[in-house]
Amino acid sequence: MDPVGRVVCAVAGTGEGVDRAEAATGAREEVPVVEVAVDDKGNYTVPRVDTAIDCGFVANPERIRSQIEGAAVMGLSLAKYGEITLKNGRVEQSNFNDFQVVRIDESPPLTNTHIVENGIEVPSSGVGEPGVPPFTPALCNAIFAATGKRIRRLPIGAQIST
To answer: Which terminus of the chain faces fewer neighbouring Cβ atoms within 10 Å, N or C?
Structure first.
């Protein structure tokens, strides 16, 4: 555990969740590295995310970067707030107006996308979703490294402070 509460932790492409994301979306490999800062009250921020992706031949690198940056924001949203609640047997959330996502002040201020360069002979693969599934495990591992507390359910909520 880092006494300052800052740590960088990676989820390798061998984890089951990452493997499923690769098979489902077609990306060859996508690995996020999440830095988390946790204060003494259990409040946390994500100051930086670095993501490496191998998606075959890259025709438009800026589109890939924007997808991966958006995945970091969506992954953080799901980890912090992603909960579907029921009332009288019905789902309460109908759309984003009542399903919270992180705002700009909670989003990682620094996101770097590192794209593996391939020639045109390597088929391109999807980049629409592969950034979202491995983000939360990377975040939870970073929280564990910073605090010694394992996150076992989502959303994260007050699990760090308890």
So the answer is: C
Q: Does the structure show a pLDDT above 80 at 24?
A: no
The rounded distance, in Å, linking the Cα atoms of 28 and 25 is 9
Q: Which is nearest to 139 in space by CA: 28, 44, 29?
A: 44
pTM of the predicted structure, to 2 decimals? 0.81
Greatest alpha-carbon span in the chain:
55
Domain assignments of the chain as residue spans, ordered by start: 6-147
Cα distances from 37 to residues 16, 48, 81, 122, in angstroms, run 26, 10, 18, 38
CATH code of domain 6-147: 3.30.365.10
Q: Can you tell me the distance from the alpha carbon of 48 to that of 54, in angstroms, rounded to the nearest whole number?
A: 20
Question: Distance (Å, rounded) from C-alpha 38 to C-alpha 77?
Answer: 17
